[in-house]
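Hi support team,

I've been running sequence recovery on a batch of backbones for a student project. Most finish fine, but this one hangs at about 90% for roughly twenty minutes before it completes. I'm not sure whether the input is malformed or the queue is just slow. I've pasted the structure tokens below so you can try to reproduce it. Let me know if you need the job ID as well.

Thanks,
M.K.
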């Protein structure tokens, strides 16, 4: 009995000690996070996806991942040769654009149920959108080109600070 109780106590305490949620992580299947594919020995296509309409944050995370790949490969800088940003909706394109919502409010004199129809295009409704950024990068050493280039160490330090 005591070992089982001790195990449950340790399990509950370890659940409280989990790390804070981070958007900067590898993507699971088609979910949010980063993915990359090597195009050749010095080039990658970096993809970063975030839930909702978050263009700036998604762009910054993609640049952070590009800097991380560049540093891991032993290069000093990278250039962005191609860039795409897209807002992707995962909603089904159905003719039915409304949904029924039921609310129940209770007070001192009893409860009341209210039914109303909500438009799925309502900007305050739950977001079914993802922001996707694709970067094609080319890595290099030595003198950094001026156009569309980033110092890998500076970029990594700038964007990785927000995760701490």
């Amino acid at each position: 009995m005591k070992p089982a109780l001790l195990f449950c106590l340790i399990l509950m305490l370890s659940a409280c000690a989990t790390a804070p949620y981070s958007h900067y992580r590898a993507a699971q299947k088609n979910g949010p996070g980063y993915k990359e594919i090597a195009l050749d020995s010095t080039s990658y296509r970096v993809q970063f996806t975030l839930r909702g309409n978050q263009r700036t944050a998604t762009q910054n995370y993609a640049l952070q991942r590009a800097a991380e790949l560049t540093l891991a490969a032993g290069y000093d800088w990278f250039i962005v040769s191609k860039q795409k940003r897209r807002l992707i909706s995962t909603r089904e394109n159905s003719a039915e654009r409304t949904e029924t919502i039921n609310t129940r409010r209770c007070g001192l004199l009893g409860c009341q149920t209210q039914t109303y129809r909500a438009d799925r295009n309502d900007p305050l409704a739950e977001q079914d959108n993802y922001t996707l950024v694709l970067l094609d990068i080319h890595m290099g050493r030595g003198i950094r080109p001026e156009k569309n280039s980033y110092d890998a160490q500076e970029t990594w330090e700038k964007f990785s600070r927000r995760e701490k």
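--
Follow-up from support: It reproduced on our side and the slowdown came from queue contention, not your input. DSSP finds three helices and seven strands in the chain. No action needed from you.
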